[in-house]
Amino acid sequence: MFKRLRNLITPSVVPARGALPRNAPSAVRPTVIEQRAALLAGQHITYTLKRSSKRRSIGLRIDDRGLTVSMPKLAPERWLNDVLRERANWVVEKLDGWQARKLPVQQWADGEFIPYLGEQLTLRVAQLAAPVTQLGDELWVHGDEVRIEKSVAKWYRQQAMQLFSVRIAHYAARLDVAPLTIKLSTAKTRWGSCTSGGVVRLNLQLIKLPQYLIDYVVVHELAHLREMNHSAAFWSVVGSACPDYAKLRRELKGCSLQA
Fold it and tell me: What is the rounded CA–CA span in Å between residue 241 and residue 225?
């Protein structure tokens, strides 16, 4: 299956120094979760604190939900404060990185932009009811914001299935493989996957990216029909149809899987 985009969906984790002694008392109770705030490196940072009787060290985790601190249930506050102070710069740097990767909230009004095949289409709201229509770099839709969002989502799916089918047929012939079926995916962590039975799933969000990145994902997944692993032999298959796969792979890691 397609390898996860580590710089997008794999959280940043760093262990803290020290741990509770093995003979430290612990209570067998559910994990306690709190919402807290702290001043770290001059910034006010909110974070989730999880106390668990199963932990013996303090761990910091940063992902799209922000900072999560996990610590032993009976650990002293002083230890927590020391760890946060020591890791303050790391926390702020990683949080800033996640914030920079977040996509702006999509607006569904006339004149707004929507991503499509690596470009931006201008949303135009028609006065009369009509099917969604692309005219050059404009996408014409009808209705209020709720209806527009649903109409564009349906249009995305139609465009994705049409384009993905064409690209899969093209590269399947080059790689001499025969996928059984193509399905759209809404996975939050993978751009694509392929089963040994020949079911290829491609993430719907790919339709927003340039076609050359779509082609790379297609080749990657189809290559699994020759090699169900990520061995040197697998990458050799990928390279036979996509010689610059390493460059494209790096570029794809910088793309967001947010809807």
Answer: 14
CA distance 124 to 108: 10
How far apart, in whole angstroms, are the C-alpha atoms of residue 165 and residue 162?
Answer: 5
How high is the pLDDT of residue 30? 64
Give yes or no for a contact between 115 and 103, defined as CB atoms under 8 angstroms apart: no
The per-residue b/e assignment along 90-113, b for 16 or more CB within 10 angstroms, e otherwise, is ebbebbeebeeeeeeeeebeeebe
CATH dotted code for 113-253: 3.30.2010.10
What is the distance between the alpha carbons of residues 170 and 255, in angstroms, rounded to a whole number?
24
pLDDT over 90 (residue 251): yes
Cβ count near 181 (within 10 Å): 10
What would you measure as the largest C-alpha separation in the chain, in angstroms? 74
pLDDT at 3: 42
Let me know: does 124 contact 139? Beta carbons within 8 Å.
yes
Give the domain ranges of the chain.
Answer: 6-101, 113-253
Mean pLDDT of 233-254: 95
Query: Whole-model pTM?
Result: 0.65
Per-residue pLDDT of 142-182, as tens digits, reads 999 999 999 999 999 999 999 999 999 999 999 999 999 99
Residue 105 near residue 116 (C-beta atoms within 8 A) = no
**Please, how many CA atoms are within 13 Å of residue 221, restricted to the half-sphere of its CB?**
30
